[in-house]
């Protein structure tokens, strides 16, 4: 049917054929994109095999460590922000994961959202009160292996002058020598949910959500 139609002599036949051929070429190009992406070589860097992780003492690599927080904003949107500039240590032995020790501190003044005005408000006494409570700190108390590359990390979170137990779900992302700075590096992701009012940060609850989801990207470099 298409061949018969295309062979008919009609005004603008040449333009019609060009349009069909162009559309066909565009479709073929779009179909080829996923295959091209799939065949692209993987970037060289860390490996995720848990057995490749070197035991030892690590320090936080602050440029690629961040804590994202997400909460509901008046029931309309799930709003997010970040804390960064972390410092701290990780003592890790993959063969004895239960002996892991994690101690990380975040400066409250590092809080960042999409609005500078909101950033200032969050640092104020109405919210985190960065002047009085300049940092948040997590210190592990117990680690339990849950899979070949996963674990739960229970510890004490101190925020806004209040200390409460928190359990993180953690997963190994990769380990190995960083190809740029040549340092032995290990990276994890973690997540948990906390109640901000339990830490005394209760401004606008419940209009602004009390339950806060934390998603952590943690990078650590082996101490020399």
TrEMBL record:
Position of the signal peptide: 1-38
Pfam family, one: YceI
Gene3D superfamilies from the UniProt entry: Lipid/polyisoprenoid-binding, YceI-like
Keywords: Signal
Classification via InterPro entries: Lipid/polyisoprenoid-bd_YceI, TTHA0802/YceI-like_sf
SUPFAM superfamilies for this protein: YceI-like (SSF101874)
UniProt KW Glycoprotein keyword: no
UniProt KW Signal keyword: yes
Domain Lipid/polyisoprenoid-binding YceI-like: 57-221
Name recorded for this polypeptide: Polyisoprenoid-binding protein
